[in-house]
Design goal:
Blueprint lengths: L6 E4 L6 E6 L31 H7 L2 H6 L14 H4 L10 E7 L2 E6 L2 E5 L33 E3 L8 H14 L4 E3 L23 E6 L5 E7 L19 E7 L9 E4 L20 H4 L7 H8 L5 E5 L6 H4 L6 H10 L5 E4 L13 H12 L7 E2 L6 E4 L4 E4 L1
Parallel strand pairs: 5-6, 11-12, 12-13, 13-14
Antiparallel strand pairs: 1-6, 1-7, 2-8, 3-4, 3-15, 4-5, 8-9, 9-10, 10-11, 15-16
Helix pairs in contact: 8-9
Organism: Parasitella parasitica
Keywords: Signal
Protein name: Metallo-beta-lactamase domain-containing protein
């Protein structure tokens, strides 16, 4: 079976939390993202990059120039976490949905009394060792040990700034919460020990339900498509699946009436050819002529509209190399429209220098792209590190 998954942890002494896979609620017409040997992006928008282009990348990509743009004025604002907000009593679930940005793609999502942690990274570097590799230029807004009890840790793919960091976070959570029963939904990439009965693996459009016995509240997590890749070495490229995720809060009958959230993880949207003129790489008139990933419209049609979406906006330059796997802010705005999100928060920026765009460019481009598309810029924006966004059926508010 083709698999992709996430990790959950459940408070064992405080409550009994039950997780169970069910028949896919949102059926996929065909499983065309595996060729018998590895996973693939089955869309024209994911034109593969030739290995012969790697030397060009190293000759033209200037990470040093991007690092020089890091100043107090260009770094993301950092605020104190509102602990009263995120440590509220989960025994009295409300209709509010709260998201707190922890840096890069890491977000703490809270809905109906559940605490869901996406792509956790609290380490200094996103590399196999902590003495080399990309180093974060913004500190995490808190320590992992300070977070409320986590019900689910959701992982988008196995690249180091997402999966290894998540594995470290899960190990740390196991130490910090020794009384918890751990349930692990893995990428078959040794996030937890092989053969562990707590491992549940999901393919695109598979889903799992989680129920809290203490409140009878329940959520459904659905593994959904993304346009990306996986692998850490030349020998394991695309051997594990990548994904976006949808979280639905369910009523007692199991209907998704209590809120929907989309997590984009790490994804591209369209393929920008190497022959593209520099002035056209971010121009909608030109971009609209290129094929874009149809998966997000499908997600919006099947599971949306969403009350909130968490969408990547950074690590996108040079476009000829990065466009198939990383959204530019212009791509992110189109993705926001495709999934039919009422409000969106930018992720995957402001933490590591992974590509050569100036560090302050993603949020500036995002605001401009929203206006260029004729959308309200307030509907898709950035949070300060440690900042929270709360939305409900009646109102939305930034907590910073």
């Amino acid at each position: 079976m083709l698999k992709k998954a996430f990790t959950t942890t459940a408070a064992f002494t405080i409550m009994t939390t039950f997780a169970a896979r069910s028949a896919p609620v949102h059926a996929q017409a065909q499983k065309n993202h595996h060729d018998g040997n590895k996973f693939k992006n089955p869309w024209p928008s994911a034109a593969p990059i030739s290995l012969l282009s790697i030397p060009k990348l190293f000759m033209t990509m200037n990470l040093g120039a991007a690092e020089k743009t890091i100043t107090p004025a260009t770094m993301p604002q950092k605020v104190d976490i509102d602990w009263n907000l995120i440590k509220k009593d989960d025994k009295e679930p409300s209709d509010d949905i709260t998201a707190t940005w922890m840096g890069h793609a890491c977000v703490l999502l809270q809905l109906r009394g559940f605490n869901v942690l996406f792509d956790p990274i609290f380490s200094d570097r996103c590399s196999p060792v902590q003495f080399g590799g990309p180093k974060r230029y913004t500190e995490p807004p808190c320590q992992l040990s300070e977070l409320p009890a986590i019900d689910a840790v959701v992982i988008s793919h196995n690249q180091r700034q997402h999966h290894q960091a998540a594995g470290q976070a899960v190990s740390r959570l196991q130490i910090l919460r020794s009384s918890w029963q751990q349930r692990v939904f893995s990428l078959t990439n040794r996030l937890d020990s092989a053969g562990n009965e707590r491992v549940i693996e999901l393919d695109w459009w598979d889903n799992v339900g989680i129920v809290k016995d203490s409140t009878k509240e329940q959520i459904r997590l659905t593994c959904t498509p993304a346009q990306h890749q996986s692998g850490r070495t030349p020998f394991d490229k695309d051997k594990t699946l990548w994904s976006s995720w949808c979280v639905e809060a369910l009523d007692k009958e199991g209907n998704a009436t209590k809120g929907r959230v989309f997590f984009g993880g790490d994804t591209g949207y369209r393929s920008v050819p190497a022959s593209t003129k520099p002035e056209s790489q971010y121009d909608y008139e030109y971009l609209d002529t290129l094929p874009h990933c149809p998966a997000f419209t499908e997600i919006g049609d099947k599971i949306g509209p969403f009350d909130l979406a968490l969408i990547p906006i950074g690590a996108y330059s040079p476009r000829w190399f990065m466009s198939t796997v990383h959204c530019s802010p212009e791509d992110a705005v189109d993705l926001h429209r495709d999934v039919k999100s009422k409000r969106s928060i930018a992720i995957h920026w402001g933490t590591f220098v992974l590509t050569d765009e100036p560090v302050q460019d993603p949020p500036h481009r995002l605001e401009a792209a929203m206006k260029q598309r004729g959308l309200n810029a307030a509907d898709f924006g950035v949070l300060p590190l440690g900042g929270s966004f709360t939305t409900s059926t009646s109102s939305s508010a930034l907590n910073d």
